[in-house]
Amino acid sequence: MHRISLAALVLVGSIACGAPAGAEDSTSILEPAETYLLRYKLQADEQIPYEVTHIAKTKTRIRGAEEVSNVHTVSQRHWSVTKATKDEMTFEHVVDSVEMTQQQGEAEELRWDSTTGEKPVAVFEKVAEQIGEKLSTISINARGQETSREDFGGTKATLGMGSLTLALPEEPVAVGATWSVPREVRTRTEEGEVKVIKIRELFTLEKVKTGVATLSVRSEPLTPIDDESVRAQVVQQLSNGQIRFDIDAGRMLSKQLDWDETVVGFQGANSLMEYRARMTEKLIDGIERTASRR
């Protein structure tokens, strides 16, 4: 673990001159805050498997008509690291299997599990085409910043954070430190115009225990949103949750993002949208993979 101590000691205490008679000398020396350098340390030729679970319930009410939709998806995916140096790493993102459930209103619930070999219903066919395929090739620096990216398929929609990797701070940080990363969300107004919403992802190092850093992340829109139809598009792309990062191994262990949003007036004065969702992503240990590179 790369730990760097702050050079300066902080001296605090009462000043003897002018102190009340009989006052105790409270001069003390505080220990310097321990700092941690957070960096990705992927290794060439390794495969890093994750399980991603997304559960969402969306309720809309427009002119008195209410509809509820539920989605539950569990996917197994992995990063196949093709190149790695101290400063730059390249990996391919592959989805290995998907188990999906979807229900829209009073319609029959649709299910599909890619591991059964059964033919998917039409609504899942696009997903089925991507199983085992390389969705993207991504190069990052040690801070997790994308230096290049090539997409080959899959949806461009994102659920929070907008990237597979975590944006790490430039300098070593102590518990309680914060850093922010700018991001843009593209939306479309009712008039069909594209509107870009600027967002700041605010990260905080909450604690470090046994080499694992726990971070919180919270999205803060910087662009004023006065169009509720735009707000309804933005809320699903905000990030509020917690991330665990293995400092020694240099990779994310888990991530949980939660949404609990209500937008009133997104399609007229009497409309309402409620969005309740959770996305979890966790590193799967102990799995040997033989999937060939693509």
Describe the fold and architecture.
By secondary structure, the chain is mainly beta. It has a single domain, classed as Lipovitellin-phosvitin complex, beta-sheet shell regions (Roll), CATH 2.30.230. 4% of the residues lie in helices and 53% in strands. It is built from two helices and 17 strands. The strands form three sheets. Strands 5, 6, 7, 8, 9, 10, 12, 13, 14, 15, 16 and 17 form a twelve-stranded antiparallel sheet that branches. Strands 1-4-11 form a three-stranded antiparallel sheet, with no helix packed on it. Strands 2-3 form a two-stranded antiparallel sheet. Strand 12 (178-188) and strand 13 (194-209) form a beta hairpin. The longest helix is centred in the C-terminal third of the chain and has 7 residues, at 228-234. The radius of gyration is 24 Å and the shape is globular. The two termini are 34 Å apart. Keywords: Signal. Residues 1-23 form the signal peptide.
Question: How helix-rich are the residues, as a percent range?
Answer: under 10%
Instruction: State the end-to-end CA separation.
Output: 34 Å
Count every beta strand, where a strand is a DSSP E run of 2 or more residues: 17
**CATH fold-level topology:** Lipovitellin-phosvitin complex, beta-sheet shell regions
What class do helices, strands and sheet pairing give? mainly beta
Average pLDDT, rounded to a whole number, is 86
Largest sheet: 12 strands, antiparallel
Number of H/I helices: 2
Secondary-structure element order, as H and E?
EEEEEEEEHEEEEEEHEEE
Proportion of strand residues: over 45%
State the shape. Answer: globular
Whole-number count of domains = 1
Given as residue ranges, the uncertain stretches (5+ residues, pLDDT < 50) are 1-26, 287-294
Gyration radius, to the nearest Å?
A: 24 Å
